[in-house]
Amino acid sequence: MKSKLLSLALLAVAAGLFASCGEGKVNITDASFEPKIVIQGTLIPGQPAAVRIMRNFPLNVRIAPDDIIVTDANAEIVDAQDNAAHRLTYNPETGFYDAGDLQVRSGRSYILEVQTTIDGRVLSARSETTVPQAGFSVLEERSVLGSRQFRQRDASGELVDFSVTFERSPGTSFYAVSVSALDADTSTFIYDNPFGDFDVDDVLNDFADYAYTFTWIQDTPLTPGQSSMDIFSFLTWFYGDYQAIVYAADNNFKDFLTTHDTVQEIDGNFHEPAFHIDGDGIGVFGSALADTVSFFVLRP
Amino acid sequence: MEKMIWAFLWLTCTTVQVSAQSAPKASVGGFVYDAANGEALIGANVYIEGTLIGSSTNVSGYYVIPKVPPGSYTLVFHYIGYKVIKRDFAVAVGDEKTITVSLEEQNIELQKVIVTEDAIPNAEKLFEKPISKIELSARQIKQIPQVAEADLLRSLQTLPGILPLSDFSSALYVRGGTPDQNLNLLDGTDVYNPEHAFGIFSTFNTDAIKRVELSKGGFNAKYGGRLSSILDVTNLDGNREEFEASGAISLLSAKTTIQMPLGKIGSLSGSFRRTYFDKTIAKAIDNVPDYYFYDGNVKAFFDLDARNKLTVSAYGGEDQLDFTLNEGVDDEASLTYDWGNRTGSIRWTRILSPRLFGNFWVTGSRFDSDFDFGETIDITEKNFVSDFTFKGSLDLYHSERLTSSFGFEQKNLHLIFRQGFPGGKINVDNRPRHYVLYLHESWRPTYRWDIEAGLRFNLFDTDETFRNLAPRFSAKYRLSDSVNLKAAGGVYYQYLHRIPRAFVADIWFSSNRFQKESSSSHLIAGISKDLANSFQLEVEAFYKDYSNIYSFNQLVATELIADEFENGEPIYTKTRGVFNRGDGESAGIEMLLRKERGAVTGWLAYSLASTKYTTDNINRGVSFAPRHDRRHAVNVVANIDWKNLKRSWRGQAPMRHKSNWKFGMTFIYTTGQPITLPGSAYFINALPDRPVNEYELFPRAINDLRLPAYARLDLSITYERHFRSWSMYPYLQIFNIGNRKNVWFVDYDNIFGEPDIDVQQMFPILPTVGVSFEF
């Protein structure tokens, strides 16, 4: 009896040990694929209206962006003020659909409607954007631009970042700035920076992310007035010339920019981003006003 | 509902009146202490020999037998593992007799046979135990193999219905509830964010613990303020007879506990520990942040006189992190993060009359964290919770069949969350008040029945006033000498809501005009059976629903509205848009087979459960299983006393040995956790002028897949060596001895057009070596 009990106990421990060895396997193909229309379009007054229409693709598939552009979609932009429909035509040179004679104007609302067939399924998507009100412009004389050293300090030792000051668009509370390093190269990378140890391979691995950065401010006053946005030192990774485009953005632009790339939480779980597209679409159909400035980061 | 409440109040008043009118008998009461150290013994049985008249001691060690007919009797005192004491006494009509005793342990000498027979059968103890309540002693907690350090919350995670989210978290998910729905009490004081080491360990030092009770649901009207569970931790009062010390040292930490008498009047205990990972292992590894934590408990007990006792308890702990991103450059970037709890309580225990027992508390609790990323990133954060509470309870023993309890609570909360970041600030600062009155009746109409009913009234005052009545009930029935049936239910309210954050302290906000009070209803039924007075079997089924439960809105940035402006930058002072509101329900069956005596002790637990949430703006309104839902969970905990196991095989009685080997084992198996995986990928550019196509992921339905099952086996070996005046316990613990690669989550990326799937795993095999001492 005792030996039976001992055998049973040893068997239980062995079974526990067996069960608690090995590796939990994750099969990502468990996630079934659902086709979507991917929309990228930002209407900017003064620029031709263009929308790119692509499709999504299954995980674990190597695919080039040019291979998944939808070229035969039935799409149009409707001016919500006069209900004038502007048919979108695919332009193979740019990969975008052009809206032809549509003149984007501040303060007006536009509706995008898309229909297409993907994987044998008829899909449709609809989104509406309202272009921010006129009045937005960067005030270069009040901005900190020009040529400065990386993390330059003032006479009192305070760090002074590049910054842009601008007149707000009435009714708009979200402003973003893109920062493009025009002289980006492994030889112009600022290796002596406080954000980590970098070598050439590190730079090459994420070159595009260092050469093009962006930031934003949100919930500024809706009333006319001036606001400023710092271009922090962690947005400039190279010495040399920079171009900064400042956007006064609508709600679609804002929600897409602030949520599309943060769908994975710190505990690994995913959540839905905030796209304002009805139906089978994902992506962004937004609008903005834009202004461009430049600055230079000097070598020490 | 209103009629029910009035009927209940009328019944209560009537019973009190009847009790007052029918009191011309005598009463006997007093305290029961441990003779070795003067600690109050909780749950000791006291009865009049030859009768069914009796009582048991409460949390202060106090008992009262309210209606004793005039005459001469023998009073019998029983407590498991202690020698039985009998006291003769005589009472006349109207006498109020006080008899206080100290019980001696049965096995205090080495090499003497341990008497394990208990005068109180398991069936009786199972009947006395409230439904869904679990008790653990410090000894049981220390026997469970752990990561580096015995930990209270991690020990509780081995019990049915209590789950962790991952190896990296000590937080408790009780019967489908989230950790914010658990009330953590340390000597009567609420503890917020009871976490050290980024959540890996809890703030409760096991060496300081005297007693732990966890109620998984259906708790009575004396408790409230949370939806799911009550964790009530009582620390050691201190040894009233002699100086006593213990200590332990391992590769990661050192700790010590001392206890001593304070003359004839009382006792003092203190426990202190500190990790020194930063001074040892971290020195040998590059890029490891400077991090450590320390904490300390002090408790003093004063036996003022036969009717008045005073307990003063304090706890303080702090975690400190200092991390430099890039050392050696001209302009270093660093972050500091400090957080910790401070608690304190004063409890006055007063025997107002032999039949009226009172406890009055003043408690204070404060959690504070400060985060500073310095000027480089320019982000700072302050997270602060303070709670200053007055509370009292009165227990009126009408007869051995009927007890009434009344209580009040007045809680003054202060909740601050401040964050400064480029382009704005958050400054939420609230001072809500919470007022509570409760009434609880306990009635034993016959030997077979034990019925309890209660009512708890809440008034929570913030920018809106919430008033809620929470009825509670429970019933127990002796089906036979070894089988008990139990049922309980109630309505529960919660006025504090939490934003959980991985590795940094959670943020608490109070109910307000944007987030209403949360509520939950519990319904529990169970059966318990004593199996040959050696094993205890408990099976319980439960159902809970939730209304207005709040989860963090991951899209909060899209919904914020500035409340004020400073230099044109927004300041957010309200919690508008911070949470997603939801409802939910949990149901399940739990089984616990437990063996508490003998050479082999431990438990086997199984739970079958399901939790579903429906959250506004999530998953298109379709219900989903939250991350902590586990359909099946199996726990096996076994502790083996090697020499006594061999003696039992030879048919000999167990005894205490000068040296001995003890083995511990924990096995855990759970269904994999629900997870939301990306369903597809797409290319897009964040901004119109972005020159490259970014690879992005789009999730599918929320939590509709599950990770692989979780399994883990932990083992421990301890060698016991007892000397004349001290003992030594070197130990080896091995966490996850099978080195199973349990999946935490899956990370997806796309590098140069190639999909990159990275499975993040939980703890690998982790051995710990240490030694503890007792003097």
List keywords for this structure.
heterodimer, A: 300 residues, mainly beta, Immunoglobulin-like, five-stranded antiparallel sheet, 17 strands, globular, B: 775 residues, Ferric Hydroxamate Uptake Protein, Chain A, domain 1, Maltoporin, Chain A, 22-stranded antiparallel barrel, five-stranded mixed sheet, 8 helices, 56% strand
Residue runs with pLDDT of under 50 for 5 or more positions of chain B: 8-23, 113-117
How many separate domains make up the residues of chain B? 3
The H/E string of chain A reads: HEEEEEEEEEEEEHHEEEHEE
Count all strands of chain B and give the number. 50
CATH topology of the largest domain in chain B: Maltoporin, Chain A
What is the count of distinct domains of chain A? 2
Quickly count the helices of chain A. 4
Question: Percentage of helical residues of chain B?
Answer: under 10%
Instruction: Name the CATH architecture of the largest domain in chain B.
Output: Beta Barrel
Specify the structural class of chain A: mainly beta
How many helices of chain B? The count is 8
Q: Please tally the β strands of chain A and state the result.
A: 17
CATH homologous superfamily placement of the largest domain in chain B: TonB-dependent receptor, beta-barrel domain
Q: Biggest interface in this structure?
A: A-B, 98 and 95 residues
The amount of beta strand of chain B, in percent, is over 45%
Kindly provide the radius of gyration of chain A, computed on alpha-carbon positions and rounded to a whole number of angstroms. Answer: 26 Å
Distance between the termini of chain B: 58 Å
